[in-house]
Amino acid sequence: MRRLTLASFIFSFLVGLGMFVGSPTAFAQASDDSGRLLYPASFFSAAQPTTAYDMVALLPGFAFKDSDSDVRGLAGSSGNVLVDGKRVVGKHETLSAQIRRIPASQVLRIELIRSGNAAIDMLGEPALANIVRDDAASSRGSLSAGSAFFSRGFQAPEIQGELSVRNRSREVGVAAAAGNTVDIEHGKGASPRFGPDGIQVRANHLTQDEGERVREIAGKFQQTLADADLQLNASYRREDFHAHILEAELFPTTQRDRVTEFEKESESELTGRFNWTLGAGLSMQLSALYRRTTEDGGERELSDDGSALVTQDNDAGEKVIRASARRETDSFVWDGGIEFVENALRSTNGLNVNGEAIELPGASVRVTEQRVEPFASVTWSASSRWSLEAGLRFESSVLEQAGDSHDRRRFEFAKPRMSAAWNISAHDLVRLRAEKRVGQLDFEDFASSASLSTGSVTAGNSTLQPDHAWRTELMYERSQSSGAAFGLTARYDRISKLIDRIPIVGDETFDAIGNIGNGRRLELQCDLTVPFKTGLMRDATLKANVLWRDSRAIDPVSGARRSISEDLPWEGSLEFRKNIDSRNLHWSFEYTLPSVSREYRFDEVRTERLGDMVNLSAGWKPTPHWDMRVYANNLLNRAATRERLVYLASRAGSSPSYVEARTLKVGVYAGLSITRIFGERD
Fold this sequence. Notes:
- The chain is mostly beta strands.
- It contains four helices and 40 strands.
- A hairpin with a 4-residue loop joins β7 (138-150) and β8 (155-166).
- The longest helix has 21 residues, at 2-22.
């Protein structure tokens, strides 16, 4: 069945590609002197977008990448969308949340910027979307409320509002939201166990419900002067996570086991950015960020055999200062600057079983990092068809660990990058890129952690080193003036000091995150956008993407070749959207491929599977002031399965002691949302 689903998806993808090749060129988008593709607001009008995010989602040949707050520093955390030619400041509030607050009525156009053809530091991204807003004065606000309703009786209400006042030189805004979420990868099912001979040795019923309560507020101030502009952001977010796991064993014994997971996380952030245009093609930028995150949580287990308690207390901070300068000439763009980063994490973990404290390796740690990264790049527009880019970043950091163990290490990495872009024709682009990428260590891997629901302990590892990889990427992109686009990308990573899972041997053997040597990863990615401008499918858009991945590494336990832990062999989705402009309606169908990933512990192989997913939604915009949406998701009631092959000791030279196959389903869920917009004109 899974193979049939994949075959059906690929068939639909190829059919769409055939339509793309033969589609008419009925709606032309322009391009400027630098080769940017310009999509005016009228290009998206038939889709009745409410926000700039809705417009970006429809941008041909573009896959949105959200900001990533887990990436330390500013260079690689900002996502791939600009607003008025500038990257969005801050890491706490996601990029998607910020551009959702830009009303579609304020967008003049969206520019698609491709590597090598624009006077901007791409930061390694193959393409950027630039949202260009109308600079007319406006006052706007919105209030949105809605809820998801689950077939198992849960609800996830949400309310959010925002207000902004903007003129040609100043913008002030505030936004707030509160609501609940339900984890759609857990639910109700069972986790039977089977012995090595295939005979069932345990039967049970299992319920695992997880969710969060979220509250957040953010403010923004921007002042534009003659040759400069200043932007300040402040935000606060609070998340209360909870999970209730109830296991009722049927045989060989009859007993009940209840695990409660809990965590309170708060995050506050202050950011600022100052841009200064000096004239003669010279500009400067100064950015600063301060961020603090606290987490207080754990797990509590109550069973017929006794009780257990896991506690976790984390306090993390980040400070960033980044200065850069840019010089533009007729054929060259020069970029250079320096970034200073200071990070710190204090983590304390504990395990108590039946009132007795259990010693964990690396249970208490404090990690600090001080990093400096100078960078420089040059882009040469050799002709209207050729452009070359070369850049170099040099990372120097000092990592110091205190607590249960003490260590101080220095890391230095040169990170060169080169790319070449060739515009074969007005519709065809080929891009070749090679770069060295250096990963960032997750400081929480330095500390131990325990899971009562699986009965596993992950030891802290104070000897972790960043992995680094040489990436080579070749991309072909074809676009038509109708807005249709097709992209094919091949990338290869040759990885050193690969981070995976290793055993740590002491009085006892524990699983841990560690470096396992060399590895490689090969990816092939297809992206397709087909807008329909005429006939029965007029004002419809098909977007599809599929990614195939193959990775290899040497298992540190068995010595055999295997995939890299948690790599997904397949990822993909297909979305079809149809607009009925005469009635201010639109509806969409979304299909997501099933996924599978494996994790290789020293005494266990864990396989996680998610079934395919089908979502339907419809929206109605009766006036510019109102936007209403209903949806029905997870119509196939996909299963989330976890298979654990558990060994009594090491996997090397032994057979599994038992196999545990957990299957959970959250059920179908539906919802609605209503948005009232203030300040829009009819």
